[in-house]
């Protein structure tokens, strides 16, 4: 009889400012739920953040902001490990080894690099190109089995699995790295831009009205929901209608995620109603559910010493897990010592 390995969850968020509702619903809120299912390790991925220019004067504060969001959402540092990526050197060391396992062709297929680099691929940092290899290192350094992320990270997780498979085969160490399972799904796996349902909600979008920031005031929250783009029709009466109404699909997905319902349930509840009814209800729900998280986040951000102590403790615990796995990896590769 084979026994399943215990669940070990790993995920990360970049400290790149403008943390938004997509990050919260697609990832951070789910980090919290998973604490009841297994051992959880949550990282603030500052090495990833510097793949595009960051203001060195802001980076530490942005790092604390992500940590504050984790804590405010309900990540419990007594149960889960919370730490900063650059504080655990195993990530960078393992990334180098995995850079020599991953193939150029695999990385050239990554759509996120193409999106982020745009027409300026030649001028992008090499780090932006091999960003997904560092992501694989993050996960494999802990032999994580499950990775909760938004839908935009699906391809990167497939690459992590390819890298693990290739390492295990090349060095003849079957099962050395488990293949991490993505945890993607629910009604808010891809939260869209509030003004354009064809684009995802993003930290880098210049128009602030396009996203709900976790640092917004409640007035901003209500205003942005009321201003969100919709269409002139009534609320849909069947879920299939959402396919051709992306902005409406998005608002229904947000409502469903905040209420802990499915999109079908929300469609049934508001079938045929006007947006004049739906939007205030959504705003009310958002204030009720997100408001306390935003308030808590502010309180944590006003106590950087507490955050720093939690992150320091997390780095020690993360290092204790990753270091032996890195040592075994070096041995498998055949390094001296
Ligand atoms: P980042 O900081 O860009 O995003 C953090 C998380 O938020 C999710 N996300 C969204 N979910 C739903 N709708 C959206 N509009 C939306 N925008 C972002 C992302 O999918 C992500 O889960 N590369 C990762 C960070 C990372 C990582 C890792 C994740 C680095 N190493 C190892 C897992 C495991 C990222 O996208 O960060």
TrEMBL record:
It is found in: Cytoplasm. It comes from the Bacteria. InterPro entries: aa-tRNA-synth_I_CS, aa-tRNA-synth_Ic, Rossmann-like_a/b/a_fold, Trp-tRNA-ligase, Trp-tRNA-ligase_bac-type, Trp-tRNA_synthetase. GO terms for molecular function: ligase activity. Pfam families: tRNA-synt_1b (PF00579). Homodimer. Belongs to the class-I aminoacyl-tRNA synthetase family. It catalyses: tRNA(Trp) + L-tryptophan + ATP = L-tryptophyl-tRNA(Trp) + AMP + diphosphate + H(+). It is an enzyme of class 6 (ligase). Catalyzes the attachment of tryptophan to tRNA(Trp). Its main location: cytoplasm. HAMAP family: Trp_tRNA_synth_B. L-tryptophan binds at residue 138. This is Tryptophan--tRNA ligase. Its EC number is 6.1.1.2. ATP binds at residues 14-16, 22-23, 150-152, 191, 200-204. The keyword Transmembrane does not apply. Keywords: Aminoacyl-tRNA synthetase, ATP-binding, Cytoplasm, Ligase, Nucleotide-binding, Protein biosynthesis. A motif ('KMSKS' region) lies at residues 200-204. SUPFAM superfamilies: Nucleotidylyl transferase. Gene3D superfamilies: HUPs, Tyrosyl-Transfer RNA Synthetase.
């Amino acid at each position: 009889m084979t026994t399943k390995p215990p669940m070990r969850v790993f995920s990360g968020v970049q400290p790149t400012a403008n943390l938004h509702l997509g990050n919260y619903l697609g990832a951070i809120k789910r980090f919290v739920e998973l604490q009841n299912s297994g051992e959880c390790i949550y990282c603030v991925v500052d090495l990833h953040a510097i793949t595009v220019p960051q203001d060195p004067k802001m980076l530490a504060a942005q790092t604390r902001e992500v940590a504050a969001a984790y804590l405010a959402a309900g990540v419990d540092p007594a149960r889960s490990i919370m730490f900063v990526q650059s504080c655990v050197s195993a990530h960078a060391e393992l990334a180098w080894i995995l850079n020599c396992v991953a193939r150029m062709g695999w990385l050239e297929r990554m759509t996120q690099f193409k999106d982020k680099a745009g027409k300026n691929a030649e001028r992008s940092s090499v780090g932006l190109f091999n960003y997904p290899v560092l992501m694989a290192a993050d996960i494999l350094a802990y032999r994580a089995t499950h990775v909760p992320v938004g839908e935009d990270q699906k391809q990167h997780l497939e690459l992590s699995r390819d890298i693990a498979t290739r390492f295990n085969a090349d060095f003849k160490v079957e099962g050395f790295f488990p293949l991490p399972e993505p945890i993607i799904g629910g009604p808010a796996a891809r939260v869209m831009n509030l003004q354009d349902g064809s684009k995802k909600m993003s930290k880098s979008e210049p128009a602030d009205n396009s996203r709900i920031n976790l640092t917004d005031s409640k007035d901003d929250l209500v205003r942005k929901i009321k201003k969100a783009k919709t269409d002139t029709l009534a609320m849909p009466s069947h879920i299939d209608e959402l396919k051709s109404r992306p902005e409406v699909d998005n608002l229904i997905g947000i409502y469903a995620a905040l209420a802990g319902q499915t999109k079908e349930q929300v469609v049934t509840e508001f079938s045929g109603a006007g947006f004049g009814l739906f939007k205030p209800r959504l705003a009310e729900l958002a204030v009720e559910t997100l408001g306390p998280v935003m308030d808590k986040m502010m309180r944590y951000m006003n106590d950087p010493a507490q955050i720093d102590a939690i992150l320091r403790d997390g780095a020690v615990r993360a290092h204790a897990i990753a270091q032996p796995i890195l040592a075994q990896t070096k041995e498998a590769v055949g390094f001296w010592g």
